[in-house]
Structures are given as structure tokens and as C-alpha cells.
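Table 4 source record.
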Amino acid sequence: MRKKEKQLLTKVVIIAIVVGLLAGGLGAFTAEKLITESSDDLIKEFYDVETATHVSPHGLRKHMGEDPNVVIVDLRSQEEYEEEHIITAINVPAYKDRDHSDYGAVERIVSEFKTMQVANPNAEFIVYCYSTPCMTGKKVGKMLADHGIYVKHLGIGWNEWRYHWETWNHHHEWELTDVMNYVVSGPDPGELEGVTKKEVCPIEGGLGC
């Protein structure tokens, strides 16, 4: 191979290496930027979903009975509902009894929600089940969404509402509120009566209590 040809070949190889390094660096930079943007988007999406679907139990308790369009729905079995439930809550059982689920009763569950929706087109349904990690609310929520009905989830379940009052109410409210004013027994939703709202929350607006 002649000297000039060798020099030309060497230049071509060097140029190829430089171009490869530049392309690789640019690709890595672009990929890193996309990953960063994707992470930010995922964080935003997470909070969008959380705030769109979850309801603060503290906020619900404070303003209970003020908005007739807020409909609380207990998804536990009928027998458990009749023993005790959150006052004003309606029962649409996703359980046959306390030990057996009834997720297959899609037609019945959807029909009951549709009936309530027809009766009150502006209804905002807030569902709850047994406890915070309970999946019943999410499964029923997905079931309803598949049929064009969209519900929100109470941030806690029955167990926390009834037996762990102090975990989700503010410390200064522990002596000012009584859980028994917010639960009722029997087949009817019950009416919120005789509750003296002595507590005062200094934080107002959407970021309030």
C-alpha cells in the first residue's frame, strides 16, 4: 500500500472513531435527558392520580353532611354494614358475607351505582372497604370505570375509621371529637345529628385539613 493511501486510510479511521464517539456521547446525553424527563412526568402523573382518586378522611369528616352530592359507599358485606358503618354511607356489597367476596356480581354492582347516578347526576361517589391496604375498593373502582362510572377512594378503611381514630385526626382534636358520633348501626345510612363541631382547623382551602 502506498504512503498516501495509508495516510488516507488512517484519516478515515480517525474520523470514524471521532464521529462514533460524538454520536455515542450525544446519544447518551439524549437518553439521560429523556430518562430525567420521564421520571419527572411519572412523578407528576403519580400525584395527579393520587389527588384525583383519593379523599382525605379528615376532610370528609370535617365537612360531612355539607354537600348532598357527596355519596359515601360501603363495599363490605351487608351483615358487616348493618353491624356498624360510617354514618350516611350507603351499602353496595362487594362481599357475600364477611368471608366471601362477590366480585363476580358485576351486573348487580354496576346497576346499583347507575341507579344512584341517575337519581343524582352530580353525585361524587367515595367508596371504602375494610382497611387502607384493602384491594376491594380498587377492584370495584376498576369495574365501575370499565362501565363509565368513576368513583373516588376514602384514604382509609373501616378499621381505621372505627378503631384507629387518633391515627388520622389531628392531635388537638382527639378530645374534641367522638368516633361514635360518626358511626351507626342498622340497615339505613343514618343521619348526622347531634355532632358539635368544636374543632377548629386554621388551614383553609384545597390544602387545608
